[in-house]
Amino acid sequence: MADRNRRLVLAERPSGMVDEQTVRVEESDVPQPGPGEALARVRYLSIDPTIRTWMDDVQGYLPPIALDEVVRGAGVAEVLESNAEQYRPGDLLFGFTGWQDYVLASEATGYQALPKGVSATLALNLFGVTGMTAYFGLIDVGQMQEGDVVVVSGAAGATGSTVGQIAKIKGAGKVIGIAGGERKCSWIADELGFDATIDYKSENVAARLRELAPDGIDLYFDNVGGEILDACLGQLALRGRIVLCGAISGYNDRASARGPVNYSNLITKRGRMQGFIILDYLDRFPEAQADIAGWLSTGEIKSAEHIVAGLENAPEALNLLFTGGNTGKVIVEV
Amino acid sequence: MADRNRRLVLAERPSGMVDEQTVRVEESDVPQPGPGEALARVRYLSIDPTIRTWMDDVQGYLPPIALDEVVRGAGVAEVLESNAEQYRPGDLLFGFTGWQDYVLASEATGYQALPKGVSATLALNLFGVTGMTAYFGLIDVGQMQEGDVVVVSGAAGATGSTVGQIAKIKGAGKVIGIAGGERKCSWIADELGFDATIDYKSENVAARLRELAPDGIDLYFDNVGGEILDACLGQLALRGRIVLCGAISGYNDRASARGPVNYSNLITKRGRMQGFIILDYLDRFPEAQADIAGWLSTGEIKSAEHIVAGLENAPEALNLLFTGGNTGKVIVEV
Fold first, then answer.
1. Kind of pairing, strands B236-244 and B217-222?
2. What single-letter DSSP state applies at residue A100?
3. N or C: where does chain B have the smaller number of CB atoms within 10 Å of the terminal CB?
4. Is a pLDDT exceeding 80 seen at residue B183?
5. To 5 degrees, how large is the angle CA B94–CA B100–CA B105?
6. Terminal alpha carbon distance of chain A
7. Is A39 helix (H, G, I), strand (E, B) or coil?
8. Distance between CA A45 and CA B220 in Å, rounded?
């Protein structure tokens, strides 16, 4: 056990990408568990685009991270010592650990034990918020139907790569992934079974969508916003649905974020554009997790993980999501 | 009976507002009804924003009006002479008469007889596409609930003025109308019973929405698009719904139309933005018409009409919709 607890706190609000000024490493004593508490070592951190939004001084679905507060984020921690009946040394716990080495777990912190047989990284990816977002966004918000032409952006990212796989499993007529670069496009086609890909860095997205989805897009799962959302709106099928999961293209630059001018196509096409927050689905996670467990056991779905070593590299890991440096779920191994 | 049929044909596609070059008056002989046909004199024309969109060379929910073709539009015509059993002189027919003096009615043209007791102008307003759009947009697409804070733009226009009245009847908690100018705002408040108004020409819409709807907008019925749509997105309540009926602010200037940058609020607020075309509801018109007939009989709803005299003034009447020169439904008395 290290004798110090490293805590990555928000030193100042970033104006664009996270940089060296954004996060400060503080060291404090390892906290001592009181009665009813357990001390747990954070092992893995889930790196999600939404963390960047919490760094802005903007009221969202959760309050912003306060200055000098540990950066908020989900993680998996291992119990080291326990004064609480419900935790035993060796247990793996899941919850908002934040970017630090140690946490105290108690009734109040709401950490949940990982189900038996679920690894820490699976818990943060397919069984965690990422997998749940893909599952409920596609099936519940997007009301995916068999035969649908489904388009997903950020398709080599954690959520996008999962959306595409679930769409295939659920009988989509065609799954088109939009990603940046040839390597990512090959990966989602060859490894994950996407039917077609568009490399937004080298191809004209709108023109390619017209080629690949000549009768229109039935369901577009949007992880990026911006021009790609606009292109998909422009090629929407009759009664097409757009699931708004995130607008990552605007997270680092709210001022120059633009609106989708083709939104008026929603009228002509009787379309629908809907946003959601996965926390609203907490009580339905078990049904999704059961489906995903089944698909994992048959090999129909793969968990794609991009591991970054070292707590101190968490800020850099977050930036990967915006530079497109990752394939699959970014996880920091503390 | 005039001996000539004046036909207003599309001479060239307008680049902004309709002007003197857009429409050409042609005269031809009054058509002679053949077997199974009736000759009818067009009495009233429904002037709707969508007519302007049909003048562009853009494939929408209906094909564009071809050059040299009579301008498409709904109207009411009176049967003068008939070789068809189903039509008798004096009958009033409703359908796409177009901008002309005379039409031939037959099985093929699909004109419908007006129900007994419904005046021609009511047929074009509350019982026609305008009333149906307000009714189904609010109730079916928008899923209005009792107690909802409802905002409607173009509130002194044909659809908007009807939406506000129906929202009140259906138990909205508060109905806020956005219109241009003090006169219109007074009219919708004093005559139509809107709870509050915003004059977008002299007030800051976003700031006023924050004042009038501090807990957010549950349902926004959008007739205009542009900055007002954006302001409403910015003040959306949790699970707020936006009904996209039209984007009149962009119809005369597609090139500089802008997208709503606040669309990403749909994510945070779990909101929904949905478009519709009233033609999809044709088979449900009777249920709406029955409700509206009831509200008319009790005086709960008023039909607000803005009559323009003379077929030759139809282009100018269309422009009224975009200059905001009308209150209520614009109808040309041929």
1. parallel
2. B
3. N
4. yes
5. 45
6. 13
7. strand
8. 40
Q: What tokens does B276 get?
A: 């519709």
Q: What is the pLDDT of residues B233-283, one digit of tens each?
A: 999 999 999 999 987 777 777 666 778 999 999 999 999 999 999 989 999
Phi, psi dihedrals of residue A23, rounded to the nearest 5°: -120, 140
The two tokens of residue B136 are: 């189904």
Size of interface A-B (CB pairs under 8 A): 95
Contact B230 A259 (CB under 8 A): yes
Residue whose tokens read 């107690």: B147
Tokens of A12: 């100042």
Dist. CA A101–CA A105, nearest whole Å? 13
What is the chain B residue with the closest CA to A261?
B259
Please state, in angstroms and as integers, the Cα–Cα distance from residue B129 to each residue in B44, B224, B292, B322, B323, following that order. Answer: 14, 17, 13, 19, 21
Calculate how close chain A gets to B286, using CA atoms only, in Å.
Answer: 21
pTM equals 0.89
pLDDT band, very low/low/confident/very high, at B177 (cuts 50, 70, 90) = very high
Residue given tokens 């009038």 in the structure block: B212
Contact between chains at B259 and A257 (C-beta distance less than 8 A): no
Closest by CA position to A255, among listed A11, A13, A15, A10: A15
Kindly give the interhelix angle for A285-297 and A158-169, rounded to the nearest 10 degrees: 70
> Which conformational region is residue B68 in: left (phi greater than 0), alpha (psi within -120 to 50 degrees), or beta?
left
Q: How far apart are CA A164 and CA A145, in angstroms?
A: 14
**Which residues of chain A does B273 touch, with a Cβ-Cβ cutoff of 8 Å?**
263, 266, 272-274
β-strand partners of A275: A244
Cβ atoms of residues A76 and A43 within 8 Å = yes
Q: What is the pLDDT of residue A110?
A: 84
* Tokens matching residue A177: 């992934």
